[in-house]
Amino acid sequence: MDYQAVLEEIEKEIKPLLNEGKVASYIPALANVDDNKFAMSIMMFDGTSYNIGDTDFKFSIQSISKLFTFTLALNYYGKKLYDRVGHEPSGDPFNSLVQLEYENGIPRNPFINAGAIVTADTLVSIYKDNTFKTILNFIKEVCNDDSININEEIFQSELEHGFRNFALINMIRSYNNIHNKIDDVIQTYFKQCSIMMNTQQLSRAVLFLANHGINPLTNEEIISSSKAKRINSVMLTCGHYDASGDFAYKVGLPGKSGVGGGIVAVVPQKMAICVYSPKLNNYGNSLVGTKALELFTTKTNLSIF
Amino acid sequence: MDYQAVLEEIEKEIKPLLNEGKVASYIPALANVDDNKFAMSIMMFDGTSYNIGDTDFKFSIQSISKLFTFTLALNYYGKKLYDRVGHEPSGDPFNSLVQLEYENGIPRNPFINAGAIVTADTLVSIYKDNTFKTILNFIKEVCNDDSININEEIFQSELEHGFRNFALINMIRSYNNIHNKIDDVIQTYFKQCSIMMNTQQLSRAVLFLANHGINPLTNEEIISSSKAKRINSVMLTCGHYDASGDFAYKVGLPGKSGVGGGIVAVVPQKMAICVYSPKLNNYGNSLVGTKALELFTTKTNLSIF
Amino acid sequence: MDYQAVLEEIEKEIKPLLNEGKVASYIPALANVDDNKFAMSIMMFDGTSYNIGDTDFKFSIQSISKLFTFTLALNYYGKKLYDRVGHEPSGDPFNSLVQLEYENGIPRNPFINAGAIVTADTLVSIYKDNTFKTILNFIKEVCNDDSININEEIFQSELEHGFRNFALINMIRSYNNIHNKIDDVIQTYFKQCSIMMNTQQLSRAVLFLANHGINPLTNEEIISSSKAKRINSVMLTCGHYDASGDFAYKVGLPGKSGVGGGIVAVVPQKMAICVYSPKLNNYGNSLVGTKALELFTTKTNLSIF
Amino acid sequence: MDYQAVLEEIEKEIKPLLNEGKVASYIPALANVDDNKFAMSIMMFDGTSYNIGDTDFKFSIQSISKLFTFTLALNYYGKKLYDRVGHEPSGDPFNSLVQLEYENGIPRNPFINAGAIVTADTLVSIYKDNTFKTILNFIKEVCNDDSININEEIFQSELEHGFRNFALINMIRSYNNIHNKIDDVIQTYFKQCSIMMNTQQLSRAVLFLANHGINPLTNEEIISSSKAKRINSVMLTCGHYDASGDFAYKVGLPGKSGVGGGIVAVVPQKMAICVYSPKLNNYGNSLVGTKALELFTTKTNLSIF
């Protein structure tokens, strides 16, 4: 199939939507983004890639980082991780404290903020002071790119304005489900959100999830086959907050979005995709990004269903 | 692959679990079941089938019926159906009224009781007095078996003890999301739950969902390809109440369970499966049935992820 | 103190508010009311009464009836009643199902609909087919007026449109906290809501609550002193749904409102008051009635605080 | 009436209950208390006092401090205060985040932790760095006792273990209902909770609330008559978290409890009472203290109802 042609069709069809949605504004550093950008990259197992739009443009990966920390934590802890964070859809907005309260501080899944914070805490328990460095090195490794780093301004901005995340971590701590210093954990979490990547890098970085845990470009096993499948299933059921059902319904691929405007998606045993467009729909997911992926599976018939 | 051998292995491995779990007891007619039964059937596109256990034994399909009414309603209404019932996981026990209240009478998805009741109502709007007959005929057709019918005792029992379902329908009605007489709708719903089928029949009945909407045994298009995929996605994200994430995580197939002890699952583009064992886990899904399907995808590597 | 003069002042001061608020419209029979009416009656222990406005005009007492059924049930069951219905404020709109679900079918207090329905059920357990007759006779007795009766049109209207109440009773039944036939209980409840009384009658009917359980006009003990005080405390903390705190704050008297536009209030050891005006504030309480009572305690310094 | 004799009767009757309940243990400094203590003080308008038990023993006043900060804030802001904190019962455990989330960061009343934290914030807006000093001076003044101070160990303990309160303040801040630095506000709040007083001091300190805002011992107006009544009404409807209805029901007096084991209560136009016993019931209120006050109003007939 001529994927380049598919990307070109998609670029044309999403154009009228570029004015819709709203850039995330909860921190000033995110609000000041060029909001008409669009980029989409496909990475195949043999290293072939297809790109459209500004695929060199780096944006903060935000919640897409949860995919990498979940991988690290699941790899280390295996089933024990479920005692600390579940894998059920949350059925509530992404930063809801309600469910957490009714469920005694065990977040529903690693892709809501509460769950990602607990996941970060499990990593701090292993890697101590080197936790963020370990996360960053892991991303550099799966993406084979040493140049990746954080945006210090975004990190500081998250730190200054992240009141709901401070509320979450303190509440989870009150249920004894945070084992390290609150400041160490929350700084790790905010730093991972501030990592800057472009769609080319991200599509390469998640390729191992499409290939049963093995990076097809290096033949290195990143995670076991069965764990890779489980990560994909959590992406499908929980990857888009309270629009996860809708994403599965319309796109039909495991995916994970970030409030910075990026979405990664995985076609099992075939390829990885990343799309970027900063304006968000009502659920906090890239509006054009979601549409582009829906067009992609419609045109290619690559839905897993 | 030798699927018969796989089924035989599974039968051995699940044996120690046959004592675990509890038969549904909310109505007397369900509680009086032989609780050590196990049956599993696979149906291929060419008509080949593989069976183990008591695959002739008929049980009430209960919530599996929601799959057939959702198919009928989606086929007729298309996108308009979403104004009445959503397609997001509910993140709450299957009969919760809470979420319904916060979301103004629009059930989260067609597989929780509230959503299935609204779906039944949309069918009563079309088929009036013939609604249940239409549903039953549809099931007879997709399964090519005229002998299927309801168990009158179970139907009466549901009617007499279904207080939560009466609460649900009255509440939805108070939000004007029930358009027909409460008694007509609830009787339709209770009747569809009381339909008796065995695992052979059920595996044949859902085969069209594995084959993009076309019954491969008759080549008849039951529903469009894109709608069939969407039904599969809703099964994956919402098919097992508050254990949907766990089922996707462990089994990795679209599936739908019923409190009668049956579970159907679909391997897209390959086959349909039905498993039966009446004892339920804490989430109201067949305990042994869930395990059997997990063993199946582990052994066959047929997870969609 | 010249209470007649106080009433006259109040009538003047509330005039500009008579256009505000909205008549209850959930049933047609209530919506068709003359919405500029105002009436207020005071009844003293020696039989003296003070009246202003259309104090002969009869309106449906609605939730004020809960006061009489709670009195009957508490008199019969004593502390045992608390196993079936609590006495804590609900902190939620008056017909909320949420709290009921989290608290396993035990309504928070006898003045929210769920609690009044359970109270009605406890009376049906005692008085069987004569339950409504017993309630009506009790009201006739405390008010010394044989002419009181229900409005059949309002009763039928409640029956036809009371979907939320049907939802409530079915849900409570599912927790086994309804012991009689749903139809018998709900009809009793709807009938008690449809009783027609004017402000003179209602002020006389609740006088025993101001006088430690003894009707001062007849010297008859209706209920023990300690129970009378407890009924007053429940009126104060729970009498106005989710505006109970505000009513206590502004008026400072135990009171109970009905969606028909009436409010009764009790000045312990002094008098009983009833005010009527059919337009409701956002909390479902008579807007002008609440204001009139606030003016009353400000002018007379009769707040219990 | 011989109040000393009443206190002596009460002391005898509560003795068998001194073993019931549990001392607060959420911070170590509270857990290490002598848990069999009992003390009760009555203060009359003419300065006469009645005492029983160890009425010189100082305990941390904890949530009773909310009464004093609410007085200060209501005095300064008047009705404007309601934009920031309501006056409705919460119907939920005292530190619930759920209700806060559904109500956009406006706490239900000044006596739940969230509401007291917002109240502290409104005081920091006025008194800046002198806020805690102003609160402490106010308490010294109404109690005419310069020796009152905080327990530094309890303060530090609250600071180190108050994760839920940190969660609350961050969440409220995310709704922009905290206007000052989080650290300044929370330290003020934890300090006010750590103030040490005995039952004699506390009964004197709340006497102005029994006397329509005027300290009868000094004739000084602390707050207006109408505001004093309103504070009493909030005590009655909200003073005991989710047992406020029960306290009103059984005791029938405006009161405010603290997790340190103290309860103050007010008999309007007559006296103020303070009781202390550190073991708490399931609702976090002094078990023996609640019973002692119930016995008091039963014996003296001083319930406001």
Automatic annotation (TrEMBL), chains A, B, C, D:
<dbReference type="InterPro" id="IPR015868">
    <property type="entry name" value="Glutaminase"/>
</dbReference>
<dbReference type="InterPro" id="IPR012338">
    <property type="entry name" value="Beta-lactam/transpept-like"/>
</dbReference>
<feature type="binding site">
    <location>
        <position position="241"/>
    </location>
    <ligand>
        <name>substrate</name>
    </ligand>
</feature>
<keyword id="KW-0378">Hydrolase</keyword>
<dbReference type="GO" id="GO:0006537">
    <property type="term" value="P:glutamate biosynthetic process"/>
</dbReference>
<feature type="binding site">
    <location>
        <position position="63"/>
    </location>
    <ligand>
        <name>substrate</name>
    </ligand>
</feature>
<keyword id="KW-0007">Acetylation</keyword>
<feature type="binding site">
    <location>
        <position position="189"/>
    </location>
    <ligand>
        <name>substrate</name>
    </ligand>
</feature>
<dbReference type="GO" id="GO:0006543">
    <property type="term" value="P:L-glutamine catabolic process"/>
</dbReference>
<comment type="similarity">
    <text>Belongs to the glutaminase family.</text>
</comment>
<feature type="binding site">
    <location>
        <position position="165"/>
    </location>
    <ligand>
        <name>substrate</name>
    </ligand>
</feature>
<dbReference type="Pfam" id="PF04960">
    <property type="entry name" value="Glutaminase"/>
</dbReference>
<feature type="binding site">
    <location>
        <position position="259"/>
    </location>
    <ligand>
        <name>substrate</name>
    </ligand>
</feature>
<comment type="subunit">
    <text>Homotetramer.</text>
</comment>
<dbReference type="GO" id="GO:0004359">
    <property type="term" value="F:glutaminase activity"/>
</dbReference>
<feature type="binding site">
    <location>
        <position position="113"/>
    </location>
    <ligand>
        <name>substrate</name>
    </ligand>
</feature>
<protein>
    <recommendedName>
        <fullName>Glutaminase</fullName>
        <ecNumber>3.5.1.2</ecNumber>
    </recommendedName>
</protein>
<feature type="binding site">
    <location>
        <position position="158"/>
    </location>
    <ligand>
        <name>substrate</name>
    </ligand>
</feature>
